Amino acid sequence: MKLLRYGPKGQEKPGLLDAQGKIRDLSKVVADIGGDVLTDAGLARLRALDPASLPVVEGNPRIGPCVANIGKFVCIGLNYADHAAESNLPVPAEPVVFNKWTSAIVGPNDDVEIPRNSKKCDWEVELGVVIGKPAKYIDEANALDYVAGYCVINDVSEREWQIERTGTWDKGKGFDTFGPIGPWLVTRDEVANPQALDLWLEVDGHRYQNGNTKTMVFTVAKLVSYLSQCMSLQPGDVISTGTPPGVGMGVKPNPVFLKPGQTMRLGIQGLGEQTQKTYAAE
């Protein structure tokens, strides 16, 4: 299934994308696409529905973040060896864990705000993993059983705040609008192998990132298991699993950073695409 949320910000309704690409309204079935719906039982209930019995959503509504009320937005850094190299940083021996604030979350096609005085705003296409049941101290061998589904994430990053200022990466990752998520949550059963997905990103039509999740340093299963050793994961939590090479700060000889008025397009095989325009913070 492809689950989504549509409508104005703060007023999103739950939806399902049918086989013909039409949005079907789920608001008579569930209140929203949150952790309570993303459990095995909740997804089984939705899977049993006949999409043709659900109302068609007409027009082209705004698409919101594909998960509501996200509890944790956990991110992984330097999870592709070639991205670590372009960042002039060593390949980590253990996952590099940081967070995005949930206030950074926006829809997949919402505008991205360039912060005041920012000169080093960057892009990162990433595979998002959505947790479907409580996970604590779980084994890697069973870790994917705790995944509800997958989605596209743009881990927008301000490199000066992330790298050049002292402290953790979080402050360079958590600006408002720095977490576009969606368009859909594609349930686990429709993704045969999360380690075999092409992902890409372009800015103003120029392709900067072309990668595949097969080159991850730590697999999705490893990451879910690892994180469950140091925190309890809950249904609706989101993990962003790192980016392949091609980020702006890695462009040689001169890095390239986002400016107001540009357009980012990005996508992952089978998970849909995002488009964001950038604008300057007031």
Alpha-carbon distance between the termini?
40 Å
Strand order, sheet with most strands: 3-2-1-13-10-9-16-4-5
Number of helices: 5
Strand content: 25-35%
Structure, described:
With 282 residues, this protein is of the alpha+beta class. It is built from 5 helices and 18 strands. It has helices spanning 40-47, 81-86, 159-164, 170-173, 220-230; strands at residues 2-6, 13-17, 23-25, 73-77, 96-99, 105-106, 112-114, 121-122, 125-131, 147-154, 157-158, 179-180, 185-187, 198-203, 206-212, 238-240, 263-268, 272-280. The strands form 4 sheets. It has a 9-stranded mixed β-sheet with strand order 3-2-1-13-10-9-16-4-5, covered by helices on one side. Strands 7-18-17-14-15 form a 5-stranded mixed β-sheet, with no helix packed on it. The longest helix has 11 residues, at 220-230. The mean pLDDT is 96.
